[in-house]
## 1
Amino acid sequence: MTDSLGFLTSPAGKALLEQLATEDLRESNHLRLLTQMRRDYGAEDSRSALELAILRQKAVSKFGADAARMFFTRDALEQASDPAARGYRAERLFNCLGAKSKIIDAGCSIGADALAMAAVGLKVVGLDLDPLRIAMAQLNASALGVNATFAEADVRLSLPPAEAVFFDPARRTTNGKRLHHIEDYQPPLSLIHEWEHALVAVKLSPGVDLDQLADYPGEVEFISVEGDLKEAILWRGEGLTGLRATRIDATGVHHVYNPTREALSPAEISTPRGWLLEPDPAILRAGLVGGLAADLNGWQLDATIAYITTEERPVSSWVRAWRIREWLPFNMKKLRAYLREHSFGQVTIKKRGFPMTPEEMLAALKPRGENACTLVMTRWAGQPIVIVCDDFTPEQIGRDEPADEEGDTC
């Protein structure tokens, strides 16, 4: 695609891309489209135009209407951050640094994060070793009218002076295999030990093993978007420490759970009470379930299980909640009899810390009847139990607790 970028930005290339934007780009149509294009364009230019047109369609979920004007490689698009997450990060960096502060985007790829940071008022310099991605980043900045600078450079050698660095190392091999250890990232995370910038923010895998970060002082933040865990960020800078959970809701508003007290230990253990709560995945990955349970006047069912139980309906959008009807020690025969007795034929099964799959449970229970319920298969104090809950689609409930913040500073 490198050789075809000049064609794709030429008047003829732009016209061809505009035409392809109106075509049905399903795989079954690729041969027909390539055959038609080759009548007027070279084979390589035709393939590159079709590839970019396909990627622009795929990119709508991450870039909205702007995708139709942008340039991508397939790998770069797959690696691009969630739009809500990168927008939130840009705002937090702005709050940390202030307007017109200089930040280096080390490993900027096609510029998605750099453009988000520039859009909020930061002075961004994007660096990458790949000349094609640098060229695309420059084209993307021009297409979106965003002021950012991009240059080809090896960030492993040195970085220019700036107030901050944003670093997004590759977490997959060239064949797509995930890299699970921070020192296998490309470049490895240990590279940041050489940087003396006042603030360094590093994008990590959301599944990062926190034990691997023992030699990296700072704050580790887990970010979820509409209930899906998206990424982790290591923040290294003055006053940044501990663990933090951030949830971005459907309206784009972000909420922060960053307790000042120790919240890593499990809460007190209790049998199921009136309500069963499932915390947001950012809370789970940050290991803050115990703190949230305490804030909600609740208990955990088991020290190793991330369910919370409370007497009253919770007032927190950090959890989904189900009303508990009753609970039973797990026994397949007795559970089957219980379902028949109450005519529960429409059964939804959730599980956490339980060996059988929902499909295996349903096959074994063979529920019949007109009533509906949710069965939660889990553990209490190490013992398998089943919790019978009213069947409804749980929504995030009420307002956030005082610990939840919006629009906070660095």
## 2
Amino acid sequence: MSGLPDYEPPRLIAIEGPIRVGKTTLADFLADRLHAERLRDIENNPFLGDFYQEKPGAAFAAQLYFLVHRFHQYQALDLASTARRVVVSDYLFDKDKVFANLNLSDLELALYDEYFALLAEQVPIPDLVIYLQAKPETLRRRIEKKNVPIENAISDDYLESVVKAYEHFFFHYHSSDLLVIDTSEIDFVGRSEDLDELLARLKQPVKGTQYYLPLGSRRGATETEGNG
């Protein structure tokens, strides 16, 4: 397959979605095909263990740790320094607020919002966001298959809340062009045709908010467009 895309590519692509939806895998594939710089989300937040065990104050500490470290990563990109450089990130900076709204008390959220407002205005906005969706039961199966102890501690109720929070966030998201992909029936690793179909789609521009399913999953359904 030839390199992608046929048109001038977006310079900053962010891939988003709940845990085990496939963000990192897809970002790795895209960065390889686009010969792009790879931006990876923080994985070693020292407060996450206490957060999943619901220890007092751990949610706020974990959220601030993510916020500061994600800010430093995005700020270090300096996109203006290299005009044609492409960056693929496996997270969107704005997603930090998804979890803040979900996990923090009203007082904690008020303080967090002040820090977020100061930092967010200094972070570049992606040209394209790819939002990966999956049903909670699909994500649970993937969590169990991966078998990471800290992830196994995530309750079904919390996992469902995360999925709903992402859906609400991206329903109202208009800052970038957005491609929404339901991954419940997609396997980028096990089925190369799923990846090839998506890469073929990304050789064409995404304008506004668009929804996509591979041909094998949608059985002839057509891609649709909407307002979010």
